[in-house]
Inverse folding.
């Protein structure tokens, strides 16, 4: 009984149960939900949100927030594609390196204001969200570029498949190759958070910033790492995004930030900092993806999807708070006796 | 010639115009127990933060083990073996007990990777050193205050520790736990580790100190062996004046209507059959162990945990107090024990905190708060209660503990209560402020308020109250007139009651 209660106190378990119940429900109404092509389709549509979420997870654990990553991603993606178009150098590795470096630079720009001037992270990144995107549209361009026209290499990537299975219902089911990026990134972030002192510094900062400083962590350097890392991840995700959507649209990506942050928070990361896990975040991403891609199978209009996401966030995030309050109440009662 | 471990030379530090430390020099020898004493706001905490590298001094230098540091960083200080147990514990509420204890060591060793086995081993060893047992995997945020303190102490038990600084380490500990702490301090000294014990509790200083350093208003005023100092001398040096030890003379005869009368008041699981009268001008002390029901009784009178049986009469009229609003309506004010979380808006200004209860009396005709009236009201209370601030617009958290407590009292007085309940009014407050707060309480009673003081500080109750009620396991077991009993006798009686448990 006690183990069960402890298990239910974990956000991961609650989210996993929600996913299972929701899946069964959708599957009962529309049996095609449980087909392999559909599972692959859901995994594919979770790639972008999932990759962004890995960066956001680190920021949230450290007690900050970053809303500028979509602007970083779209800037890195578009500038890289323009670079390929204008120079004619079409190399897969180089385009990832260029986009990653642009992302890193923009992330460090955030870090500069956050670490050295100690400005609130929300304010800084809200500002740079507009700033980066404005600069991109004004100086670099606002025309859509079709990937197939400028980069055969990226175009090939968009058709690459990790797994191809014959679909019993006819045709084949494909899992997109970019899923590998999400898996590798998730493993890296998991190792970083759990087995490096840098990762523990991030948790410590989210728990108590001043205490982290007193223990001897270099808080500023860690902040540079955090926001630089988010930028790097955003830049790479930008390239993956344009390859998946087969075009580089400077008006895309921005707007995804709320879904990403919602996924991370649903996965148990605390908006106040100090808490969050990779597994929880992946489950949060899966839930959000499930809702936005599969409620259609239930015949629910897409307008209602926002409503459902909102309800889930409120319920999902209030459960741990209520549980904590309950625990504190029993504890103080125990002390009073 | 004993060896010097740490030498601080001519340290000065100021914060936005306030001189926190003024040319302070201090030496700490290897393996000695030095006590740093001073009132709240005397610069003790600033000094500690400077020797552990959190603050950089404006002037002066720090020499550790013969090495001179102009810019001491926290990591340097930790590597030199300085461990600080901060007053606020400085723990990570989101991490486990084991990690909280071991993190310090792992950072100091410059580790890049985490070995969870090592972390548990370090934590286990540190806890063994002070002979306590705590669940290593528990999250610190969910532990009691006393356990947090023990975790903070065990974190300082590092292999390379040469100097352990303890900033008011006993505030959250019971008497038994304080004994354990004394034993830890002596054990550390035997191993050649120096201790800088920061406190304003004189009995602790006298038990532990070999040398006493006293700070007043940011300057060092005394630095001498403990045996050359008397308690009076220490108090005089801390406060700059002697403190009169006078009891409260309750002169008003108990005629007419009692202000407050309790008849067989009970609350299931908290207290039962409590009856007493409180007359205008009386100060009644309520004491007993933690869990004797004393705080629960106060909360029942204040309506936050209402009584379920018995009668409360105010001015002879039976009243129902089922909510805080009811209590306020009947003129009952409550100054809580934990002023930081229950009594103050720390981020808001001193002035706003004072008037927050009495805003309704400050409205002009259009129903808006009248700025002039508000300002006058704030000034009156700042002056009446001697709140030491240059500007009432500053945040409350900028004040020292004693002054914060005055703001809480001012807040309740501004709403003109007739009955005031003070729970632990001087917990965490230094000697000088304590005497002043006692003076304020006595003055209020003389103006005709009825006051109930809840405290386990026997000398305090003897000084302030004219009557003391002793509670045990939810029942009122005895009542004493302070003029009829000696302090020692009451203390004995208390110990006896506790022993009976």
């Amino acid at each position: 009984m006690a183990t069960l209660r402890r298990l239910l106190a974990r956000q991961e378990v609650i989210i996993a149960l929600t996913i299972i119940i929701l899946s069964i429900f959708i599957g009962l109404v529309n049996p095609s939900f449980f087909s392999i092509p559909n599972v692959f389709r859901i995994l594919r549509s979770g790639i972008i949100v999932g990759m962004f979420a890995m960066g956001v997870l680190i920021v949230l654990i450290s007690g900050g927030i970053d809303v500028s990553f979509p602007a970083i991603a779209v800037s890195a993606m578009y500038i890289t594609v323009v670079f390929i178009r204008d120079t004619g150098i079409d190399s897969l590795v180089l385009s990832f390196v260029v986009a990653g470096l642009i992302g890193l630079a923009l992330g460090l720009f955030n870090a500069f204001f956050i670490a050295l001037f100690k400005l609130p992270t929300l304010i800084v990144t809200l500002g740079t969200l507009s700033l980066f995107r404005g600069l991109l549209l004004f100086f670099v361009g606002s025309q859509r570029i079709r990937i197939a026209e400028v980069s055969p290499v990226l175009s090939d990537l968009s058709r690459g498949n990790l797994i191809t299975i014959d679909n019993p219902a006819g045709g084949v089911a494909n899992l997109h190759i970019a899923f590998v990026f999400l898996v590798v990134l998730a493993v890296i972030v998991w190792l970083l958070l759990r087995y490096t002192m840098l990762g523990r510094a991030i948790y410590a900062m989210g728990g108590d910033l001043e205490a982290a400083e007193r223990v001897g962590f270099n808080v500023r350097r860690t902040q540079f790492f955090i926001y630089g890392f988010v930028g790097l991840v955003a830049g790479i995700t930008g390239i993956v995004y344009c390859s998946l959507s087969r075009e580089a649209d400077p008006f895309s990506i921005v707007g995804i930030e709320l879904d990403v942050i919602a996924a991370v928070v649903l996965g148990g990361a605390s908006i106040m900092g100090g808490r969050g896990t990779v597994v929880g975040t992946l489950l949060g991403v899966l839930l959000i993806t499930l809702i936005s891609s599969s409620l259609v199978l239930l015949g629910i209009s897409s307008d209602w999807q926002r409503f459902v996401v909102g309800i889930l966030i409120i319920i999902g995030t209030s459960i741990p708070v209520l549980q904590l309050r309950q625990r504190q109440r029993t504890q103080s009662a125990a002390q009073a006796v | 010639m004993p060896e010097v471990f740490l030498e601080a030379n001519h340290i000065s530090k100021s914060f936005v115009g306030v001189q926190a430390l003024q040319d302070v020099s201090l030496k700490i020898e290897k393996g000695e127990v030095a006590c740093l004493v001073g009132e709240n706001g005397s610069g003790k905490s600033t000094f500690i933060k400077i020797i552990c590298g959190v603050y950089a001094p404006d002037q002066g230098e720090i020499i550790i083990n013969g090495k001179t540091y102009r810019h001491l960083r926290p990591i340097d200080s930790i590597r030199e073996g300085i461990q600080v147990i901060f007053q606020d514990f400085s723990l990570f509420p989101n991490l486990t007990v084991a990690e909280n204890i071991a993190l310090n060591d792992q950072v100091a060793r410059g580790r890049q990777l985490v070995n969870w086995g090592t972390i548990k081993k370090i934590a286990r060893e540190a806890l063994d050193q002070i002979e306590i047992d705590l669940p290593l995997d528990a999250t610190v945020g969910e532990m009691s205050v006393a356990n947090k303190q023990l975790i903070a102490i065990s974190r300082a038990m590092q292999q390379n520790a040469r100097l352990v600084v303890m900033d008011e380490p006993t505030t959250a500990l019971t008497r038994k736990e304080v004994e354990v702490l004394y034993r830890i301090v002596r054990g550390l000294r035997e191993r050649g580790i120096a201790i800088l014990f920061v406190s304003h509790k004189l009995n602790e200083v006298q038990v532990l100190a070999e040398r006493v350093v006293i700070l007043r208003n940011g300057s060092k005023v005394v630095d001498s062996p403990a045996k050359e100092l008397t308690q009076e001398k220490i108090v005089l040096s801390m406060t700059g004046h002697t403190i009169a030890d006078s009891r409260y003379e309750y002169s008003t005869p108990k005629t007419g209507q009692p202000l407050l009368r309790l008849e067989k008041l009970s609350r299931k699981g908290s207290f039962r059959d409590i009856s007493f009268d409180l007359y205008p001008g009386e100060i009644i002390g309520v004491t007993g162990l933690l869990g004797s029901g004393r705080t629960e009784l106060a909360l029942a009178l204040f309506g936050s945990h209402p009584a379920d049986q018995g009668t409360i009469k105010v001015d002879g009229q039976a009243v129902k107090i089922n909510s805080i609003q009811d209590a306020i309506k009947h003129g009952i004010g409550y100054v809580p024990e934990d002023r930081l979380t229950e009594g103050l808006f720390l981020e808001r200004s001193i002035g706003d905190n004072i008037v927050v209860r009495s805003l309704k009396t400050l409205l002009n005709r259009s129903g808006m708060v009248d700025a002039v009236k508000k300002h006058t009201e704030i000034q009156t209370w700042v002056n009446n209660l001697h709140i030491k601030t240059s500007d009432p617009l500053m945040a409350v958290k900028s004040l020292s503990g004693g002054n914060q407590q005055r703001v809480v009292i001012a807040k309740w007085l501004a709403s003109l209560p007739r009955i005031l309940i003070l729970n632990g009014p001087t917990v965490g407050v230094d000697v000088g402020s304590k005497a002043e707060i006692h003076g304020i309480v006595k003055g209020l009673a003389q103006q005709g308020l009825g006051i109930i003081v809840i405290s386990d500080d026997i000398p305090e109750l003897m000084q302030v109250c004219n009557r003391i009620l002793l509670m045990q396991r939810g029942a009122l077991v005895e009542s004493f007139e302070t003029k009829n009993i000696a302090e020692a006798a009451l203390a004995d009686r208390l110990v006896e009651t506790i022993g009976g448990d």
In short: Chain B has a mean pLDDT of 84. The radius of gyration of chain B is 25 Å.
